[in-house]
Amino acid sequence: MLFERPTDDILYDALISRDAAYEGFAWAAVKTTGVFCRLTCPARKPKRENTTFYGTIAECMEAGFRPCSRCRPLVKFGETDPVVTKLVEALDADPFRRWSEDDVIAAGIDPSTARRAFKRRFGLSFLEMARLRRMGKAADVLNEGASVIDAQLDAGFESGSGFRSAVTKMFGEAPAKLRGKNLLRADWIETPIGPMIAIADSHALHILEFAERKALPAEIRRLQAATGSSIVMGRHAPIDQMESELKAYFAGEDTSFSTRIAGHGTPFQRQVWDALRKIPSGEIRSYGALAANMNLPSSTRAVAGANGANQIAIVIPCHRVIASDGSLTGYGGGLWRKRWLLEHERRMVAKT
């Protein structure tokens, strides 16, 4: 985080007043009920001595607290934060506009409030997100063979040097070199347990990861090196298909995925990932059992390594593999998500 965490006294005051400015900045865990809540929760307020504050949902769940059924802290953030919802809708309606703080103020929103809301949810500010959308448009124009000056004006840059600097920083290429270059597209997919980033070309999905996964930046660099492609904000059809399939999965309606996945990884890694997809929903395997099922009983460590190298979360269900003693280990999206996914799938299977 780029902002210092407020003191617990400030957070408690925010909880009492249901101050939306701190929404998502911290969560309130109530010792007497065992639940954790948003700071805007409408439920009866706990006493100060019974309230503990955590900076992440993961910390709440790892401390043994369950999500509140009133404020539903696991549902997607945009449904309950009017700042995020309003600005995202405005950006979707006019993605190529050169947005400024004055535009945010004109929408009746304090820029610092908007900045906090977007940073804590997406890891970048609204204005940074808007710039990415403009840059994606510029890349499209260049890719279609337009001149650099046309792309510059379409992206809203008055300064040619500023435009070239921004493009080079974003995509690692000078603007003229983007012309005709293969482009991957990246976009957010909201889920009940946090945003995921999906990266795809027009044919297949390359990456699907929870946004805060520590290995994500390295995965993106490897992908760019392997494909020789630049990445811009936007969508190809596989991202839309994956979003629809994830929606059905989280709604408990369907556990199957048919979105085409790009063929990354070594032959051994792909063999492990195929084995992971054969584990039925609602079931788990140990690393040793998975290796044995593959007729590789002496390769448990190698299987575990391939499991950790998976960059298509949920669809290639590495969360279904646990330690031999039954403990949850090794999930890049966070152990609390692994626990959540396993419980979600157990309930889905129980309903059938």
From TrEMBL:
<feature type="binding site">
    <location>
        <position position="41"/>
    </location>
    <ligand>
        <name>Zn(2+)</name>
    </ligand>
</feature>
<dbReference type="GO" id="GO:0043565">
    <property type="term" value="F:sequence-specific DNA binding"/>
</dbReference>
<keyword id="KW-0808">Transferase</keyword>
<feature type="active site" description="Nucleophile; methyl group acceptor from methylphosphotriester">
    <location>
        <position position="37"/>
    </location>
</feature>
<comment type="similarity">
    <text>Belongs to the MGMT family.</text>
</comment>
<dbReference type="GO" id="GO:0003908">
    <property type="term" value="F:methylated-DNA-[protein]-cysteine S-methyltransferase activity"/>
</dbReference>
<keyword id="KW-0489">Methyltransferase</keyword>
<dbReference type="InterPro" id="IPR001497">
    <property type="entry name" value="MethylDNA_cys_MeTrfase_AS"/>
</dbReference>
<dbReference type="GO" id="GO:0008270">
    <property type="term" value="F:zinc ion binding"/>
</dbReference>
<dbReference type="Pfam" id="PF01035">
    <property type="entry name" value="DNA_binding_1"/>
</dbReference>
<dbReference type="InterPro" id="IPR036388">
    <property type="entry name" value="WH-like_DNA-bd_sf"/>
</dbReference>
<feature type="binding site">
    <location>
        <position position="68"/>
    </location>
    <ligand>
        <name>Zn(2+)</name>
    </ligand>
</feature>
<dbReference type="GO" id="GO:0006281">
    <property type="term" value="P:DNA repair"/>
</dbReference>
<dbReference type="InterPro" id="IPR016221">
    <property type="entry name" value="Bifunct_regulatory_prot_Ada"/>
</dbReference>
<keyword id="KW-0227">DNA damage</keyword>
<dbReference type="InterPro" id="IPR014048">
    <property type="entry name" value="MethylDNA_cys_MeTrfase_DNA-bd"/>
</dbReference>
<keyword id="KW-0010">Activator</keyword>
<dbReference type="InterPro" id="IPR035451">
    <property type="entry name" value="Ada-like_dom_sf"/>
</dbReference>
<keyword id="KW-0479">Metal-binding</keyword>
<dbReference type="GO" id="GO:0032259">
    <property type="term" value="P:methylation"/>
</dbReference>
<feature type="binding site">
    <location>
        <position position="37"/>
    </location>
    <ligand>
        <name>Zn(2+)</name>
    </ligand>
</feature>
<dbReference type="InterPro" id="IPR018060">
    <property type="entry name" value="HTH_AraC"/>
</dbReference>
<keyword id="KW-0234">DNA repair</keyword>
<dbReference type="Pfam" id="PF12833">
    <property type="entry name" value="HTH_18"/>
</dbReference>
<dbReference type="InterPro" id="IPR004026">
    <property type="entry name" value="Ada_DNA_repair_Zn-bd"/>
</dbReference>
<feature type="active site" description="Nucleophile; methyl group acceptor from either O6-methylguanine or O4-methylthymine">
    <location>
        <position position="318"/>
    </location>
</feature>
<feature type="binding site">
    <location>
        <position position="71"/>
    </location>
    <ligand>
        <name>Zn(2+)</name>
    </ligand>
</feature>
<keyword id="KW-0862">Zinc</keyword>
<dbReference type="InterPro" id="IPR036631">
    <property type="entry name" value="MGMT_N_sf"/>
</dbReference>
<dbReference type="GO" id="GO:0003700">
    <property type="term" value="F:DNA-binding transcription factor activity"/>
</dbReference>
<dbReference type="Pfam" id="PF02805">
    <property type="entry name" value="Ada_Zn_binding"/>
</dbReference>
<protein>
    <recommendedName>
        <fullName>methylated-DNA--[protein]-cysteine S-methyltransferase</fullName>
        <ecNumber>2.1.1.63</ecNumber>
    </recommendedName>
</protein>
<dbReference type="InterPro" id="IPR036217">
    <property type="entry name" value="MethylDNA_cys_MeTrfase_DNAb"/>
</dbReference>
<feature type="domain" description="HTH araC/xylS-type">
    <location>
        <begin position="107"/>
        <end position="181"/>
    </location>
</feature>
